[in-house]
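Deliverable D4.2, example record:
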Amino acid sequence: MKLFAVSDIHGATKPIEKAAPLIRESDWVVIAGDITHTKTRAEAADVMACIEQFSSRILAVHGNWDRIEIKDFLEEKGYSLHGKGRMLEGIGFFGLGGSSPTPIKTATTYTEEEIALTLRAGYEQVSDASQVVLISHVPPRGVRDRSFIGLRGGSRSVKAFLERHPVSLCLCGHIHEASGIERFQNTLVANSGSFKKGRYVSIEIGPNLVTKPERVDY
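Output generated by the structure prediction step:
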C-alpha cells in the first residue's frame, strides 16, 4: 500500500496541484490536520475538492487550527478517523484530530484525558490488525515536536499510548519545523511538516515499512 501523507495545508491548493501525479499514484491520501487557514468549512471544502480531482481515497483528521465544523465536514465526507478505526487491506488505521493545549488559543484543543479516550476508542476497532497506523495531528511528546523556540508541542497522552500499544507508524504534523522521521520504541513517527511549504511523506507499507520525507516545489 502506498500512502501520500501531508499535514498543515492551511488553505494552500497550489502544492496540491503540483503534487497531482504523486496523489494519483498513491493508494491513499493521508491528511493529518490543519486543513484550513481561515478555519471555515467553506475553505475546507475548497481544499478537499482540489484533492478530490486526483483521488477520493482519503483518510483525514482535523487539526488544532481547524474548527469543529471541519471535523463534522470530514465525517460527512466519510474521511474522518478522529476516534475511529478502519481496516484497509489488513492494515488498521485510527486517528486523533486537534491537539493538546497550546500556549496560544487555537480553534480545537483537547485535554490529555480526552486525547487518551479518543485514542483508545479508535484503536479498539483495529487492534487485531497485523500493522496499525495512527494518524494524529499532534506528535507524541518529545518526538518530532520541538518548536523553533525550543518548546515541546507534543501530547503526553499520545506518547503514553505508543509506549503501551503496538503501533507500527504514527503520521503527524502540527509542529511545522519538526518535520522528519524518528523511531520511538516500536513506532516509526513521521512528522510530514507543512504541506503549505511543499513538505510531505511518502510511505510504502508491505512486509517492511518504508517512509521517506519529500518536498514538492511550486
